[in-house]
Amino acid sequence: TQDIPVSELALNPRRGGPKNLPIVDYFVDDDDCPEMRAIKHKPKLVILGTGWGSVALLKQLNPGDYHVTVISPSNHFLFTPMLPSATVGTLELRSLVEPVRGIVKGVYGHFLKAMAEDVEFSEKLVEVSGIGPNGEKQNFYVPYDKLIIGVGSVTNPHGVKGLNHCHFLKDITDARLIRNQVIRNLETACLPTTSDEERRRLLSFVVCGGGPTGVEFAAELFDMLNEDLCKFFPKILRNEISVHVIQSRSHILNTYDEALSEYAEKRFAHDAVDVQTNSRVKEVFADRILYSQKDDEGKIVTKEIPMGFCLWSTGVSQTDFCKRLAKKLEGQNNKHALETDTHLRLNGAPLGDVYAIGDCSTVQNNVSDHIISFLRTIAWERGKDPENLQLKYADWRGVAKRVKERFPQAANHLRRLDRLFEQYDADKSGTLDFGELRELLMQIDSKLTSLPATAQRAHQQGQYLGRKFNKIAQSAPGLQLNEVDYGDLDDAVYKAFEYHHLGSLAYIGNAAIFDWDGYGWSGGLLAVYLWRSVYFAQSVSFRTRCLLAMDWSKRALFGRDLMNF
Ligand code: FAD
């Protein structure tokens, strides 16, 4: 294909693949500038998605090493941690997004506003669908040497009926719809024709899910109702409004330190945000929500809340695209995410061709293997056979600390092991048999493998791949990347991925909480400013930082914009 002029190829692409679709090898602008010409025949790196993982990877890549193509239905990067603030007008929607074409241009890449539909692993082709000029779907193939899947996740419906009456909070369009609906409800409640009962229903806001997104939205909503309502809607009385959070577990923010989740609950109780714990939503209707609740005696009772607005925020699940890939590949046994090895290579795909990062993936990371390898090191240092190592409680503390640093998600399970060790310490004069330990670890291992689905993780994985691809390009220039039939190129050039947990933050309504490595901190205004500074510093560009600063100042001076368009 290299002898045919690029422009001709782009306009009249060759056809092929199992579906005999057009194959887009090069783009018209490949000949546009010297840099583009130089990378025309470099290894093809195709990146799916423009979220946290993909953008971190793009920012890390050395320009000119790869022929990069980015494919995503969103031509912007969304700064999700601040999305709840945009639902009530604290921040403007455009302040949270960064146009992605500028970022792609930084690596002389191409951007296609389209969806990945399928992957033909044996032929190294991604099937892509774009929307044509008349709104019709047009499918074609994009060939790759290396493919990175960073397509995120979708909201988990948990099989509940009536979710068409709910709002979701995943992207910028969701935030706009929520903002419009909240304001529409306030406006309708003010009409003289609206009855008292209908008013109370319209002003009843329900959030399903007590995780960080649900809690932050409830907090933002409460702030807005508290701070701007009497100013702009004097007809609405404060006691006519209610905010409810329905949570299936016994506490909200249950992945945070216990003290912090209790602090958040107290804060909500103080602000009259109603939290219903141990509750499962059964069905959502247009005007009410039905849920079952376990009472103190363990009896299940059915309850309902009349509502005018419902946010569904109960965790995430796999996209259809990822489900399709998982079905095709051997060794994909996880129902929630694509499994990768510790080099982030997709299990079951040809080695070194396909990687998966962020929410759509999970690293098959055998925590017990790591614990055992730490123990082997101890045995080796003591000149003992690991199988005969008699472990002291103090040794275990050291191992547990290192494992907890590497796998923060295992903290709860390590605490269980900790208690067992203490028991052994009392029973068996301070020692635990290596074999017994291994058996214990096997029993709980499956629960220790998944990493949290957070921006932090996706960002670290994107950066990791960027660094690794730079190394691959340096150490093997001109190498046909996937034709290495000896050894393991990824392993030879770079270490396996290691996640470093930098803590979690959550805004809970004029207060914020921080959870770092088991140490919690919560506070009022000071914490809120700290929370803002962290996100301000993390924002992708100078442009978004300026916009955020302007929004916060505008809100402080004039209040929120309570208009719907
Ligand atoms: P995403 O950022 O979701 O990006 C996925 C990309 O793939 C998108 O561009 C999408 O358009 C594209 N895509 C989807 N399907 C296809 C397809 N078939 N083909 C091509 N492209 C496709 N995490 C934190 O760490 N801290 C927080 O405070 C925090 N707050 C959050 C608040 C909210 C409201 C939400 C929704 C999430 C929050 N998260 C937070 C989670 C965080 O946003 C996600 O973990 C992170 O976005 C995952 O990054 P990702 O790159 O895997 O996917």
Quick overview:
It is a peripheral membrane protein. The protein has 18 helices and 28 strands.
Q: Can you tell me about this structure?
A:
It is found in: Mitochondrion inner membrane. Keywords: Calcium, FAD, Flavoprotein, Membrane, NAD, Oxidoreductase, Transit peptide, Transmembrane, Transmembrane helix. It is a peripheral membrane protein. The protein is an alpha/beta fold and 565 residues long. The chain has three domains: 6-153 and 318-363 and 454-493, FAD/NAD(P)-binding domain; 163-315, FAD/NAD(P)-binding domain, CATH 3.50.50.100; 367-448, no CATH class. 38% of the residues lie in helices and 21% in strands. The two termini are 50 Å apart. Strand 3 (44-48), helix 3 (52-60) and strand 4 (67-72) form a beta-alpha-beta unit. Mean pLDDT is 83; it is low at 480-486. The protein has a five-stranded parallel β-sheet. A four-stranded parallel β-sheet has the order 15-14-13-19. A three-stranded antiparallel β-sheet has the order 8-9-10. It contains 18 helices and 28 strands. The structure holds flavin-adenine dinucleotide. Flavin-adenine dinucleotide (FAD) is lined by residues 48-54, 71-74, 80-81, 83-84, 115-116, 150-152, 169-170, 212-213, 319, 321, 358-360, 453-456, 458. Flavin-adenine dinucleotide (FAD) binds next to helix 3, strand 4, helix 4, strand 8 and helix 8.
Tag the structure with descriptive keywords.
565 residues, alpha/beta, FAD/NAD(P)-binding domain, 3 domains, five-stranded parallel sheet, globular, binds flavin-adenine dinucleotide, calcium, transmembrane, NAD, oxidoreductase
